[in-house]
Design a protein that fits this description.
By secondary structure, this protein is of the alpha+beta class. The chain has eleven helices and 18 strands. The strands form four sheets. An eight-stranded mixed beta sheet has the order 6-10-11-18-17-16-13-12, with helices on both faces. Strands 1-2-3-5-4 form a five-stranded mixed barrel. A three-stranded antiparallel beta sheet has the order 7-9-8, with no helix packed on it. The longest helix is centred in the middle third of the chain and has 31 residues. It is elongated.
Amino acid sequence: MNRTLIDELPEKVGEPVRIRGWVHAIRDQKRMQFLVIRDESGLAQVVLAKDDPPSGLNEQLSALTAESAVTVTGIVAADERVKLSGLELRLEDLEIDSLAEPEVPIAVDSALDKRIDWRYLDLRRPDRKLIFEVQTTTEHAMREFWHEQGFIEIHTPKFMGSASESGAELFKVEYFETQAYLAQSPQFYKQMAMAAGFGKVFEVGPVFRANPSFTSRHDTEFTSVDVEISWIDSHDDVMSFEEAWLAHVLAAVKRTHGEAIEATFDTELLVPELPFPRVTLEEAKELLRAQGHDAPGPLHDLDPPSERALSAIIKQEHGHEFAFVTDYPTSVRPFYHMRYPDRPTVTKSFDLLWRGIELTTGAQREHRYEQLLAQAAEKGVDTGPIQYYLDFFRYGAPPHGGFGFGLTRLLMQMLNQDNVREVTFLYRGPHRLEP
């Protein structure tokens, strides 16, 4: 007999079925025995009358422990008294595929670190499984939009000979007779694809940051979502693409999982209207000060409290959960961001905030070789190790720009979770290399 998923039982009333899953709960009463079985599609009640003396099947069921893996066979019966879809399975046969130890080491209310120690058990919870169903739909919708817009998917190397971002955040690894670094970003290679004439590219892949931070939104390894687009006129083109793309993704997730997200995580996923509000960094700081908030000085980025306060102001004034903050100073942006001709200390860059969290960073890149060399020199960048990158711009590079962000940060905001660890399959941080 083939396996039947629990969510298929309404179509099988009166028929014999074979269910395979885990023991979710056990009630061993005087005259009846009840099991709740859980598979990837739902929960089902299994019932067995108690013989006197108990049958071998009764004794088998009595010996079960929670989270044991089992195969049960029986007849599907309708009973409106049963809370689980008004159905139950009248047990005829039980096979214990793997008996769980008596004491499960974690509970729903266990501390997060403890749950991560036993992550595979934590992920058996239906609400945890929903996170990764949402992630699957999210990535599918992203690729759907990219494909419709003629993007090419690339896979860039994760071993690098030099830094692609801050040298302070590099993981060093032995590489035969020399030393390599784990990629912090596919940035340089995205830009190589622009010089190669690919036009529009994306990548969804791992990146590594030797960041000793223990905040709720940082990790040392995460999945980065990156986009780069050629033949743009300014960073406004990149922002216009991103907002349309994100609206498409959120609409797809809402269609597929909106009701489940609201029921499980008590949050409504809103599909944003276009365009998103846009403010320059200096305008953002003026808004903050006007509402009595502290704002960093002129050469500084917004700090997390400022991002949260600014998002609240945008929500109040525009009714929007998203906001682009543009025109960051060169002091807080890398050398390869393009600058305004009439304001050489300001870059054509942006951050996208979503409900108080920085979701993405993007910019128009500097594609002119001599200007790029000058900006690198001004920032004190040692160009020797990255000459291969500079070479990308020596033989005609198109105006281009793009953005990148961490997939887990998007999921955290989408599902109203407090920590990226909740939405990461297996989290890696400064003190976490297992499981």
